[in-house]
Design brief:
The chain is an alpha/beta fold and 333 residues long. It has two domains: 83 residues, Alpha-Beta Plaits, CATH 3.30.70; 180 residues, Rossmann fold, CATH 3.40.50.150. Helix content is 26%, strand content 28%. The protein is built from ten helices and 14 strands. The strands form three sheets. The chain has a seven-stranded mixed beta sheet with strand order 10-9-8-11-12-14-13. A four-stranded antiparallel beta sheet has the order 2-3-1-4. It is globular and about 55 Å long. The protein starts with 7 loop residues before the first strand and ends in a 26-residue tail after the last strand.
């Protein structure tokens, strides 16, 4: 699964953790590069949590101007010597996910291969290493699975659910399992993610469609899509993206939640939780629960917020820059 990259090249530069998170949003300046490189950030040394690394993958050897442009986006890399090297043909997202250990989160067991034996009594999903992120291995995805499991155990009901930034479709599939008669909507800004989600739906016996117990898939930035808006109000919205987009989308996502509905947010760092909570408090939501998952790259909160009953549902207006709707360039784990 996934497209191989022929005659690929890699540019490597140091960066900080904050710069790595910002780069995940694919800065607008990168639009000048055609084709746009694939950006991958990672933490080489868990003992140095602020020291990260950027790897930019190109289909051909990058021109000097492209290297200068990317380096200019990383203030901490000024003066660093860029490393440009030829790499063997690979599907880099698949490679990054290959060999991942199965994940157990609440009642869920997620593996990249159907041949991996699952624990007795678990709810099993097969999410192969692919062109999209979200196999369950990252702490944010695992945190969302645990939160959804906890919500079901305490009796939360949901008849209309939306997964914003679905990635591989995993969280939408989990929601469908927990509330099997609910209408499920899943969206992502990346068309490849929606293709992958459809493929994964077939692997996991999930029906694509618009009826109860089915998953409707949309390519959309944020929630600015007629299909997403028309299916509102939602009892539950799940958004595992990044802190910046979560804050920017607060007005529009809050507008789509039903009176008394629930919002599950993830993709943020521990240091960003207060800002995200404050953004949604201003929209009439309160923090109801929190799960912190800890890994080599730090602590990742998963937040459950509930919309105050007095707020009610209101149809959002069309997208206005900086106010609601589309947040270009956000990603999913």
């Amino acid at each position: 699964m996934g497209q191989a990259m022929s005659d690929s090249w890699k540019l490597t530069l140091p960066c900080t953790r904050a710069e790595a998170e910002w780069l995940h949003g694919e800065p607008v300046a990168l639009d000048a590069l055609d084709p746009m490189p694939v950006l991958v950030t990672n933490e080489p040394d868990a003992g140095k949590p602020e020291d990260w690394r950027l790897e930019a993958y190109f289909e051909e050897k990058p021109a000097k101007a492209a290297v200068v442009l990317i380096q200019s986006l990383i203030p901490s890399a000024r003066g660093a010597k860029p490393l440009v090297e030829r790499v063997v043909e690979e599907d880099w997202v698949t490679v990054s996910q290959s060999g991942l250990e199965p994940v157990r989160a609440g009642r869920f067991f997620v593996a990249t291969d159907a041949a991996i034996p699952a624990p007795a009594g678990s709810v099993n999903f097969v999410i192969p290493a692919s062109r999209a992120f979200g196999t369950g291995s990252h702490q944010t995805t695992a945190g969302c699975l645990m939160m959804l499991d906890r919500m079901k155990r305490i009796g939360v009901r949901a008849a209309n659910i939306c997964d914003v930034g679905t990635g591989t479709g995993l969280l939408a599939f989990a929601g469908r399992h927990l509330w099997p008669t609910a209408r499920m909507t899943a969206s992502d800004i990346d068309p490849v993610s929606i293709e992958v989600s459809a493929e994964n739906a077939g692997l996991n016996a999930v029906h694509i469609g618009t009826g109860p117990g089915e998953v409707a898939l949309f390519v959309a930035g944020g929630v600015d899509h007629e299909g997403i808006i028309a299916r509102a109000p939602y009892d539950l919205i799940i958004a595992n993206i990044l802190a910046g987009p979560l804050i920017a989308l607060a007005p529009s996502m809050a507008a789509l939640i039903a009176d008394g509905g629930t919002l599950v947010l993830a993709g943020l760092l521990e240091s960003q939780a207060d800002a995200v909570i404050a953004a949604y408090r201003r929209q009439g939501l309160r923090l109801a629960d929190r799960i912190d998952t800890v890994g080599d790259s730090g602590c990742w909160p998963t937040l459950r917020l509930r919309k105050r009953v007095r707020q009610g549902w209101r149809r959002p207006v069309r997208w206005v820059a900086g106010q609601n709707g589309e947040t270009p360039g956000y990603g999913s784990w």
